[in-house]
TrEMBL record:
Domain Condensin complex subunit 1 N-terminal: 106-270
Keywords noted in UniProt: Cell cycle, Cell division, Chromosome, DNA condensation, Mitosis, Nucleus
Pfam families cross-referenced by the UniProt entry: Cnd1 (PF12717), Cnd1_N (PF12922)
Bias (Acidic residues) ranges: 384-414, 1318-1329, 1347-1363
Task performed by this protein: Regulatory subunit of the condensin complex, a complex required for conversion of interphase chromatin into mitotic-like condense chromosomes. The condensin complex probably introduces positive supercoils into relaxed DNA in the presence of type I topoisomerases and converts nicked DNA into positive knotted forms in the presence of type II topoisomerases.
Gene3D superfamilies attached to this UniProt entry: Leucine-rich Repeat Variant (1.25.10.10)
Predominant location category: nucleus
Protein name: Condensin complex subunit 1
Record bears the keyword Transcription regulation: no
GO biological process: cell division; meiotic chromosome condensation; mitotic chromosome condensation
GO molecular function, one term: histone binding
Entry's Gene Ontology cellular component terms: condensed chromosome, centromeric region; condensin complex; nucleus
Family note: Belongs to the CND1 (condensin subunit 1) family.
Protein species of origin: Triparma columacea
Length: 1404
């Protein structure tokens, strides 16, 4: 290779190193660039070694650096003592940096190490020179060659790091996918080699970043050593910051690398760098990368100078978003700086809070959310600052007390501090007001951010007392939010308000109400003298005003009262002055009153807070029924915490929540059980890991069951049975419950017995033992129950008996247990007969029904022969009821109730016997089949004889015959049982005797059976009888429907029960009930919401089980979608939702009927129709269904009777999914709807369809859309012109009709006035007449108005406003009234002023 002595001239700008001629410079001397790869690598290593050697020489004697360029030289008298650097070193470094990609990882690391070492040596030289400089000596700048040397090495380090940073980002992208291993394999490097390379590069970058931090510190600290007047060169200073920005771009960078980068930027800012440039770079960084905001805020935390933060806040306040995805992302990223800086420097953000508040009206929502979070942090941070300032103020006051001489400056500082505190308090109050308003932001994410901010404030204890109630109200209001996320955070905020409440750990309102009463009584009994006299003055003023208004006082009285009032006011003022005197007694009184007033205000706010939480119970209960699991979970958690604070709503809410035990979601069930344990079984705050004492558990369960309804008890039973099955509730608790059921009185007795029954659902052994059954007999049916007529305890004991099954068949006959069971059955029969009942006590009678029903159920559960016991009961009750000629209504009611329920139980008993027989026959048949198969396999193993085939055939025939006999026997058994149900139970049987009596009472043709209870029991008994026999049902069904219609305005409970009974009949006898299906649908219009809900529930059950048809009656169900009753609306929506899940999607077939029925119903408003169809058409998700519906709806335009129907059809078309086929259908069938496009609403719907079609249109479809749009516009314009013309013609017609009408009215008026005038003429005929002498020269022909004859006469001299002016060309109707038919004389009144006066009187 030819030796070249390269010359490296220092460029004017460092950026020129990337351009010509530097990128064309040759390699250094002795460098063989044509060698192979191994030799080139060795040559590169040699160059690096030379640099290390040069560094060592420079570090020791500073003799290696003679000049950076051949033009530079220094004298030995310079402070650095350098003689000049070598151009070869710089050329070598430049070559290595340019060829860095060709170096191995180890060589790259050594190169960066060499550059770092050189920079550190130079920095050390600067530091040494500064420290050794004589303070009196003038400040000397670094030599020019050192300046260039330092800048070139810094730039080479930047280039190396930039190259490594690019490689790092590429590797990060590769590692996120699956291409990393493929890339490594392709490049011929193993994964371990790649990892080693990355490790070396990461270490090199960390070392270089640390060096950059050192360089930035040296340049900023000793800027006067590098630049004149300390004004730094932006190109040099920006080198460390540029690489820092690149390092901060990567989110996966190690923490120490980011720390070095932040230190570099912070040092640059502190050293007086160009703040605008730094801010612009940081803003660009934050706009581009989401994680950068937090890093920049962290950097700002260590900078005392707030100019950078202020400039960034101003830039953020001017952020604009154009709605594009990139713009939204950029705005979201940069807005993250606000909450980040608020956490670290809240005092800075508080100064510019107005800029933040202005951003709350901007888009996107991420910006508003971050602003809200920042405002919340600022509002929470103010307390810490005030505490610190308050502590400093106290310290100063203590010092001031010691130092009597107080400076004016300190007083001014104290005033400024107090002013600052007041300003901060005002700012904080304004921020809290803003947060309250933003709870109604349009974005759910922003509303969530607001709720979280409030939660943080409350958790930190930074919420003022006067804000507790407003925040609680806001949280309760947000419970109704449409977004799940907001509701979840609202419940969390409400729970936080409860947990962090400033009042007490107990929020039972009773103590607070007692305290409030006590305080009010104290104030009433300790009124100040001035207050008493002030009340007297107020009363005197009121009396004066009342008497003055009534005028009851004289002037003397008024003056006297004024004097008395002035004297009273003076006494009040004197009393107030006496109370304000600084005496010990007055001071003590003032302190006591102030303490009592504070206590009164505190108690009032506590009661307000409790009332607010109690008011939230309605919203929380609705959330328990939400489809969202998070709503349910959060509501349950609130109730758990509310129980720990003893809020009354906790027990009520938990009882309602227990209905979720039947939820299909496992998570919801688990949360309900967990909440149940936390509230009633476990110790507070232990998550059920530690249980309460057994007595407390028993007490909680008794209270829970004692205050619950029958519906709630079903859910409680399910929960308790789960806990017993999981062995959560100890057995000792049930021992306590047994003791309570035997010794307690009142509701506690029955509640304890019910809890035992609920536990027995999972563990029958809790009841099923001789001793416990005896205890049950004594506690549930013993002397106490009989004496006190405790029907609730009797019912509870009967419920407990139902948990042990048909035990009489299992016990030994004649044994102790068998005797006890017989006694229990007799006790149940006694209850059913009502032997203890007090007929005159309505409450006792009403409670008997539930106990009697439970006892009948118990008899049919535990007895082996329940039918015989049922017969005994009926006979005994019939004898007692009909022993007199006229049975009492109460007795007859109880008899009908018992007969109906026993009939139903006999049917169920018959069906259970049928199932047992079928099961037994099936078991025997299966056993015979198994034996036959076994014998067949055994015979197959033997040798087959000549006649053996016939034997095998015979065996098979025997099996088939046996199976046929079994099937025939099973069919016979089933038929027998059906005959029993159809003909025996309510037919030829004992109960059938009373069927006609029940029918007679229900019909009540004579009007003798009007007792409400009797009618209710008879009607329900009739329904139960009908559910047993088909023939009886078919005969009496009209009567039952008549009874339902008769009670439309009376008994809601009866109607609701009858609806359920009709549903049972429709399910049991669908063919019989089918003609009466419309009657069941008609109940959806019942005035009672309860009846409507029952009807909807029954119909949903029947429809989903295909027992009745919905087609034809679908409109009545669809109307409930927009019902004001949310339960009805939800039930209707659920029905259609379940129908849509079926494979054939019945909703598709129902929609045409819905459209036809609703569009012609005047009761359906436009908005309701739109809401209904929007919901139903949302199920048309498949293109095939949508296209078919479009075709069906299009055909209805031809038969539409009105424009409103066409509007509805167009609306439905616009709500359907638009497809290519549907667009073509609309285009092909354009003629069927073109005549209605003049209507703006219809045209708007079709325009919406076109808009949706354009969003996905292919070239062919686009052409179709353009053609359709053109035709639509033409028809719309043509139709509008026709409409306008028609409207114009209509208006003209109306004007003409109005004109004709006015003319007719005028004619009538003129005719009436003419008649009046003629009457007046007749009256004046008797007056004086004058001779009429016409002049010949002035004659004219006059036609008389009556006869039409012409006469000759003189012209009348009448003024122009005379009566003749108003007629036609001949004088009109009144034109000749002033002339006589004789032509001789004329009334003189018509010629002068007298005539005009008469005309005025007549109205002319």
């Amino acid at each position: 290779m030819e030796d070249i002595s390269p010359t490296f001239t220092v460029p004017t700008a460092l950026s020129d190193l990337e351009d010509e001629p530097y990128n064309l410079l040759p390699y250094p001397n002795d460098f063989d660039e044509d060698a192979d790869d191994m030799s080139r690598a060795a040559a590169f290593d040699d160059l690096i070694n030379e640099i290390f050697i040069s560094n060592q020489k420079f570090s020791k004697n500073h003799s290696c650096l003679t000049s950076v360029s051949l033009t530079y030289s220094l004298s030995p008298s310079t402070p650095f003592g350098l003689t000049g650097p070598s151009s070869t070193r710089i050329q070598s470094l430049y070559t290595l940096v340019r060829k860095q990609g060709s170096l191995s990882a180890k060589s790259r690391g050594r190169l960066i190490q060499a550059i770092v070492e050189a920079v550190e040596i130079a920095a050390e030289q600067v530091e040494r020179e500064v420290s050794n400089r004589d303070k009196n000596a003038p400040q000397a700048m670094v030599p020019a060659h050192f300046y260039d040397y330092f800048g070139l090495h810094l730039y080479f380090l930047f280039s190396s790091m930039s190259s490594l940073e690019s490689s790092y980002k590429l590797n990060s992208l590769a590692s996120s996918g699956t291409s990393k291993s493929k890339k490594s394999t392709k490049e011929g490097t193993s994964t371990s080699d790649s990892d080693d390379s990355n490790t070396i590069d990461n270490a090199s970058q960390a070392m270089a970043m640390k060096c950059m931090s050192l360089a930035a510190s040296v340049m900023c600290t000793h800027s006067s050593k590098f630049w004149k007047l300390g004004v730094s060169d932006e190109e040099y200073v920006s080198i460390p910051t540029r690489i820092s920005y690149q390092v901060l771009e990567s989110v996966s960078r190690p923490r120490h690398m980011k720390s070095f980068a932040l230190d570099v930027i912070a040092t640059t800012i502190k050293g007086g760098g160009n703040v605008s440039t730094v801010v612009a770079a940081l803003m660009d960084l934050m706009h581009s990368f989401e994680h950068a905001s937090d890093l920049v805020a962290e950097m700002c935390k260590g900078i005392k100078d707030t100019s950078v933060m202020e400039e960034m806040l101003r830039d953020i306040s001017q952020v604009k978003c154009d709605g594009t995805k990139a713009s939204i992302t950029s705005t979201k990223n940069v807005s993250g700086f606000l909450p980040a800086i608020a956490k670290r420097r809240p005092e800075v953000l508080r100064k510019y809070v107005s800029l933040c508040v202005g951003l709350l009206e901007r888009e996107p929502y991420q910006l508003r959310s971050n602003v809200v979070v920042a405002l919340g942090i600022i509002a929470g941070a103010k307390n810490e600052e005030e505490e610190e300032e308050g502590m400093e103020k106290e310290g100063k006051e203590e010092d001031d007390e010691k130092d009597d001489g107080e400076d004016k400056e300190e007083e001014e500082e104290r005033k400024e501090e107090s002013t600052s505190l007041a300003h901060n308090a005002k700012t904080t109050s304004s921020l809290l007001d803003v947060l309250t308003l933003r709870a109604h932001d349009t974005s759910s994410f922003t509303r969530t951010a607001v709720l979280k901010s409030w939660g943080s404030l409350i958790s930190a204890g930074n919420l003022p007392l006067d804000r507790v109630h407003p925040v609680t109200v806001m949280a309760i209001d947000r419970l109704q939010d449409k977004t799940v996320m907001v509701r979840r955070n609202a419940m969390q905020l409400l729970t936080t308000c409860l947990e962090m409440n400033p009042f007490s750990s107990t929020l039972d309102p009773s103590p607070y109400e007692g305290k409030m009463k006590e305080l009010k009584e104290w104030f009433e009994g300790n009124e100040l003298e001035s207050e008493i006299k002030a009340k007297g003055v107020a009363k005197m003023q009121k009396d004066m005003e009342d008497k003055r208004d009534k005028g009851e006082e004289t002037e003397e009285d008024i003056e006297r009262r004024k004097a008395e009032l002035e004297l009273a006011i003076a006494e009040v003022e004197k009393a107030e002055q006496d109370e304000q005197e600084d005496t010990v007694e007055n001071e003590a009184r003032r302190e006591e009153r102030a303490a009592k007033m504070n206590a009164l205000e505190f108690t009032a706010k506590a009661l307000q807070f409790i009332s607010c939480l109690e008011g939230a119970n309605v919203a929380l209960e609705s959330l328990l029924m939400s489809k969202s699991t998070s709503d349910v979970v959060e509501a349950l958690r609130f109730y758990v915490r509310a129980k720990q604070f003893q809020l009354p709503c906790a027990i009520t809410g938990m009882r309602n929540a227990l209905s979720l035990m039947w939820s299909s979601e496992k998570q919801v069930q688990q949360e309900v059980l967990k909440a149940f344990v936390d509230v009633f079984v476990g110790q507070p705050g232990t998550d059920g890991k530690k249980l309460l004492e057994d007595k407390l558990i028993a007490h909680n369960l008794i209270v829970l069951v004692g205050e619950s309804t029958i519906c709630e008890q079903v859910s409680i039973e399910e929960a308790i049975s789960h806990l017993v099955r999981d062995e959560v509730i100890p057995n000792e608790v049930f021992l306590i419950l047994w003791s309570v059921s035997a010794k307690a009185t009142g509701p506690a007795r029955s509640a304890a017995m019910l809890n035992i029954a609920f536990g027995a659902s999972a563990d029958p052994s809790l009841v099923d033992s001789t001793s416990r059954l005896k205890h049950l007999q004594e506690a549930g049916f013993g002397e106490y129950v009989e004496k006190n007529r405790d029907w609730k305890t009797a019912r509870a004991a009967a419920v407990a008996l139902q948990k042990i099954g048909r035990i009489q068949e299992q016990v030994e006959k004649g044994g102790a247990k068998d005797i006890i069971i017989d006694n229990l059955i007799e006790a149940c029969k006694t209850v059913v007969r009502g032997d203890w009942i007090n007929t005159e006590d309505d409450k006792s009678t009403n409670e008997w029904f539930a106990a009697s029903e439970a006892c009948m159920d118990a008899i049919f559960t535990i007895s082996s022969t329940p039918d015989s016991h049922a017969a005994d009961i009926i006979k005994a009750m019939a004898a007692a009821t009909f022993k007199e000629e006229k049975a009492a209504p109460q007795l007859l009611s109880r008899f009908f109730f018992t007969a109906g329920h026993l009939a139903l139980k006999l049917l169920l008993y018959t069906e259970s016997i049928t199932k047992e027989l079928k099961k037994g026959n099936s078991s025997r048949t299966v056993h015979k089949q198994e034996l036959a198969d076994k014998n067949k396999r055994g015979k197959a193993k033997k040798a087959v004889a000549p006649g053996s085939s016939s034997d095998s055939d015979s065996d098979n025939n025997d099996i088939e015959a046996e199976l046929g006999v079994a099937q025939e026997q099973e069919a016979l058994t089933e038929k027998t049982m059906d005959d029993i149900a159809e003909k025996e139970i309510v037919g030829r049987g004992l109960l059938g005797v009373f069927g006609p009596l029940i029918v007679r009472v229900v019909a009540n043709e004579s009007g003798a059976y009007t007792h409400d209870l009797l009618q209710s029991c008879a009607t329900m008994a009739l329904a139960k009888f009908m559910s047993i026999s088909n023939s009886f049902c078919e005969k009496q069904l009209p009567l039952l429907l008549t009874s339902l219609s008769k009670n439309k305005s009376s008994d809601t409970t009866l109607r609701a029960n009858l609806v359920i009974a009709l549903g049972d009949l429709a399910f049991r006898f669908p063919n019989t009930f089918e003609p009466y299906t419309a009657h069941l649908y008609s109940n959806l219009a019942d005035p009672s919401p309860t009846v409507k809900r029952h009807s909807m529930s029954v119909l949903s059950h029947l429809i989903l089980n295909d027992m009745i048809k919905i087609k034809g009656n679908v409109a009545s169900v669809a109307m409930l979608i927009v019902s004001k009753d949310q339960t009805l609306s939800d039930m209707s929506k659920l029905l259609f939702n379940e129908l849509s899940k079926r494979s054939n999607n019945p909703v598709y077939n129902l929609i045409p009927d819905v459209v036809s029925l609703l569009s012609t119903d005047a009761k359906v408003s436009r908005s309701d129709f739109k809401n209904i169809m929007s919901f139903l058409l949302s199920f048309m998700t498949k293109d095939k269904l949508s296209d078919a519906l479009v075709d069906k709806l299009m055909k209805r335009f031809e038969t539409a009777a009105s424009i409103n129907v066409k509007r509805d059809l167009a609306l439905c078309l616009s709500l359907l999914k638009t497809t290519e086929k549907s667009v073509k259908t609309l285009n092909d069938g354009f003629k069927v709807y073109k005549d209605c496009l003049f209507d703006s609403e219809i045209f708007g719907h079709f325009a919406a369809i076109l808009k949706k079609g354009k969003s996905f249109a292919s070239p062919n479809l686009k052409q179709t859309l353009e053609e359709l749009e053109r035709k639509m516009n033409e028809e719309n314009s043509h139709g509008m012109s026709n409409v306008n013309a028609a409207e114009k013609a209509e208006r003209a017609k109306m004007r003409a009709a109005k004109r004709i009408k006015n003319q007719q009215e005028r004619k009538k008026v003129l005719k009436a006035k003419k008649a009046q005038l003629e009457d007046l003429e007749e009256e004046e005929e008797e007056e004086d007449y004058i001779e009429y002498k016409p002049e010949k020269k002035d004659r004219r022909t006059v036609r008389e108005s009556e006869g039409g004859e012409s006469v000759e006469g003189e012209d009348n001299e009448v003024e122009e406003d005379d009566i003749f002016q108003g007629g036609d060309e001949n004088g009109g109707a009144l034109g000749n009234l002033g002339k006589t038919t004789e032509g001789k004389k004329i009334n003189k009144g018509y010629g002068g002023t007298g005539g005009r006066s008469r005309k005025k009187r007549l109205g002319y």
